[in-house]
Amino acid sequence: MQVAIYADRDPGGKKLIATLKRRLKNEEIRAWQIQRQAPFTLVHAGDRYAKIRVTFVPAGTPTFSRAAKAGLLGAFKNPEPALLATISDGQSADRVLGFVVGMLTRHAEPLGVSGVGIPLSRSASSR
């Protein structure tokens, strides 16, 4: 499952990721924990969802390009999003998707998020 993240004033998504890291460190966002720095990966703090990873990939990286070529951006390929968040497969992935979108919309202003899209392409919806 993917989430296209738009940040008008941050085309590469670097500021968004830096702000997200800072807010997590300062415990302004408590529901998530950083699992890996590169690629930037979060896990939900609740034990029930700890196996589901959310990986953020900036536009312009090889991973982002592969996802775009595979059609995973669906209707959100133009204009290109600043980041693509990929949610790993698992029993509760759909719930984690809701948590990711909720976090991005609740903290949209400080993160610089201008829009969020969930591609429903064939390859993404077949999971």
Keywords:
127 residues, alpha+beta, 6-stranded antiparallel beta sheet, 5 helices, 22% strand, globular, disordered C terminus
Task: Give an account of the 3D structure.
Mean pLDDT is 90; it is low at 122-127. Helices cover 33% and strands 22% of the residues. It is globular, with a radius of gyration of 13 Å. The termini are close together. It contains 5 helices and 6 strands, in the order βαβββαβααβα. It has one domain. It has a 6-stranded antiparallel β-sheet, with helices on one face. The longest helix has 14 residues, at 93-106. It has 127 residues and is α+β, with helices and mostly antiparallel strands. β3 and β4 form a beta hairpin.
Radius of gyration: 13 Å
Q: What proportion of the residues is helical, as a percent range?
A: 25-40%
Query: Could you list the spans in which at least 5 consecutive residues all have pLDDT below 50?
Result: 122-127
Query: Which structural class fits the helix and strand makeup?
Result: alpha+beta
What's the order of the H and E elements? EHEEEHEHHEH
What is the CA–CA distance across the termini? 8 Å
How are the strands of the biggest sheet laid out side by side?
2-3-4-5-1-6
Number of strands: 6
How many alpha or pi helices? 5
Question: What is the general shape?
Answer: globular
**Tell me about the biggest sheet?**
6 strands, antiparallel
Strand fraction band? 15-25%
Average pLDDT level: 90
Total domain count:
1
